Amino acid sequence: MSVKRARAKGPVSPLRREPTQERGRARVEAILDAAAREFDAVGFASATTAAVAARAGVPIGTLYQFFSNKEALLHALGARFQEQTLAYFDTVLESAGEAPLESLVDRVVDSMAAFHLQQPGFRTLMTALQSSQEVATGAAHLQGVLAARVERVLRTRAPALRPKARARVAVAAVHVANLLSLLPAQPDARSQRALVRETKVILVRYLAPYEQASAEATARD
Fold first, then answer.
1. The pLDDT of residue 30
2. Residue 126, pLDDT score
3. Under-70 pLDDT residues of the chain
4. Of 25, 40, 131, 199, whose CA is between 20 and 30 Å from 53?
5. Would you say 184 and 122 are in contact if contact means Cβ atoms under 8 Å apart?
6. Full-model pTM
7. 3-state class of 216 per DSSP?
C-alpha cells in the first residue's frame, strides 16, 4: 500500500517528495519495509539511516531523496500502518450487521490480533507514541476513524441507541480493542492467547446489553 494514499487520510505526509512513478513508489515501500525490520532488530534509538538503506539495498542518497531522517521514516511507517489497519478493519467488518455478536467479536479480535503480531515495526510504533508527536497524532486520527467505523456498525446492530450514546460506546469499544496493542510484548503464546480471550470477553459483555436493549425497544415500537 502506498504512503501517498495514507496521506489523504491522516496528517501531512512525512515524505520529502512524493514518488511519481511506480519504480519510485516501489523504492519507498522497500525502504519502509527495511526500516521496520531494522527498528525491530536493533530498536529505534540504535537504528541508523545508513543501516536502513543497506538493508533495503539502496544507496543512502536514494533514501534521502524521500526521507530527511529516521524520524521521518518512523512517521511514514505510522502513516502506512494507519492505512493498512483501516483496510484490514473494513475487510473483517464485512457483513457485520448479520453476524451474531460473539462471532463478530471473535472474527474482529482474532484478525486484528494476527495483524498486530505480524506487522513489522509495530512494537517500535507503540513505543514511539510516548515520544513522537507525529506518531501520536496519527494514532489519535486512526482511533477516531476506527470509532466512526464501529459507530456505523452499531447503527445497524443497535438502531435504538441514541447518536451520542452510540458514539460514546464506539469510542469505548475501540479503547478496549487497543488491549491488542500489548500482544507483541507478551512473553509467550499462552499469554498472547489469554489476552486475546479476555479482550473478547470484555467486548462481548460490554456490547451485548446495548444490542439487547435496542432489540427490546425496537420490538416495543
1. 95
2. 84
3. 1-13, 97, 221
4. 131
5. yes
6. 0.81
7. helix
Alpha carbon 194 to chain centroid, angstroms: 21
| Residues 84 and 93 sit within 8 Å (Cβ to Cβ) | no
Q: Is the Cβ–Cβ distance between 81 and 122 less than 8 Å?
A: yes
Residue 137's CB: how many other CB atoms inside 10 A? 15
Nearest to 2 by CA among 74, 80, 90, 67: 80
Instruction: Find all residues with CB under 8 Å of 128, minimum gap 6, and list them.
Output: 44, 74, 78, 135
Read off the C-alpha cell for 209: 446489553
Please report the pLDDT score of residue 152 as a whole number: 93
pLDDT value, residue 218 = 79
Q: So what's the pLDDT on residue 39?
A: 93
Q: Is 46 exposed, middle or buried (0-12, 13-18, 19+ CB in 10 A)?
A: exposed
Whether the CB-CB separation of 74 and 93 falls below 8 Å is answered with: no
pLDDT at position 162 is 94
d(CA 145, CA 139): 10
